[in-house]
Amino acid sequence: MEHIVTVQDAVTAFADFIEPTAAELDAIEQEMPLILADVDLLDAHIITLDRLPNELDTRRIRRARNRVLSERRALANRTAGTVLSGGVA
Fold it and tell me: What pLDDT is recorded for position 79?
C-alpha cells in the first residue's frame, strides 16, 4: 500500500495559488449581471426542450434574449475605458 503523504505535500504546496485573486473576483462581480441573464436565457430554452414553445414561452425567450443583449452592451460600455494589462493592444 502506497502512502499519499508525498503527493499531498506536492498538492498543498500550491494551495495559495488556487484561490482567485482580488482582480479576478472583481471581474466576476462586474460580469455577474450578464452571467445571470445568460442563466435565465438557458432556463427559458430548457423549459421548451420537451415540447413546442407556446406564446408565453416565446415571450419568455425573447425577453431573456433582450436582457442578455442589454447586459452585454452595458458590460461593453463599462469596460470600454478599462486599460488591459499584459501588453495587449
Answer: 83
Taking phi over 0 as left and psi of -120 to 50 as alpha, with beta for the rest, 83 belongs to beta
pTM of the predicted model, to two decimals? 0.68
Give the span between the Cα atoms of 65 and 53, in whole angstroms. Answer: 15
**Cβ-Cβ contacts under 8 Å for 37 (sequence gap 6 or more):** 64, 67, 68, 70, 71
**Taking the mean position of all CA atoms in its chain, how far away is CA 28?**
7
Residue pair 33/17 in contact by the 8 Å Cβ criterion: no
For residues 2 and 33, what is the distance between their CA atoms, to the nearest angstrom? 48
User: For the segment 1-13, what is each residue's pLDDT rounded down to a tens digit?
Assistant: 566 555 666 666 6
Query: Average pLDDT for residues 20-30, to the nearest whole number?
Result: 91
- Alpha-carbon Rg of the chain, whole angstroms? 21
* Ranges of H-type helices in the chain: 5-12, 15-18, 22-47, 55-79
